[in-house]
Amino acid sequence: MPVEPLSRKEIEDRLAQLPGWSLDGDRLTRSFRLGSHFAAAAMVVHIARVQDELDHHSDLTLGYNTVSLGVNTHSAGGVVTEKDFELARRVQELAPAHGAG
Ligand SMILES: C[C@H](O)[C@H](O)[C@H]1CNC2=NC(N)=NC(=O)C2=N1
């Protein structure tokens, strides 16, 4: 089933439930700060597993004590869809276990 682009209002309504996430152009983005570089690397692996499960993948960047994501839906023309929010919610759920804020 094709995924449809979300309207600006639909995106803003969903962002209101996702602290720390924002719309940067046509991508949902968020950065997390962690207690160590190794903790950040572990969170990247955890996110990678979820992304494979969802078959939906962000640009996922490991920095010094940071993890950053940017995601949109290529198959919908590189815009934000419900699939991006599904991934963002899953990342929000796993973040506390990594001490990520
Ligand atoms: C074949 C596979 O389902 C597609 O390439 C998936 C994989 N992961 C994806 N990730 C993202 N962010 N957008 C997509 O359109 C997408 N498509």
UniProtKB/TrEMBL annotation:
This protein's record includes keyword Lyase: yes
GO MF terms held by the record: 4-alpha-hydroxytetrahydrobiopterin dehydratase activity
Catalytic activities: (4aS,6R)-4a-hydroxy-L-erythro-5,6,7,8-tetrahydrobiopterin = (6R)-L-erythro-6,7-dihydrobiopterin + H2O
Lyase recorded as keyword: yes
Pfam family, one: Pterin_4a
Highest taxon of source: Bacteria
Alphabetized HAMAP family for the sequence: Pterin_4_alpha
Stated name of the protein: Putative pterin-4-alpha-carbinolamine dehydratase
Family: Belongs to the pterin-4-alpha-carbinolamine dehydratase family.
EC number: 4.2.1.96
Keywords from the named record: Lyase
InterPro entries reported in the protein's UniProt record: PCD_sf (IPR036428), Pterin_deHydtase (IPR001533)
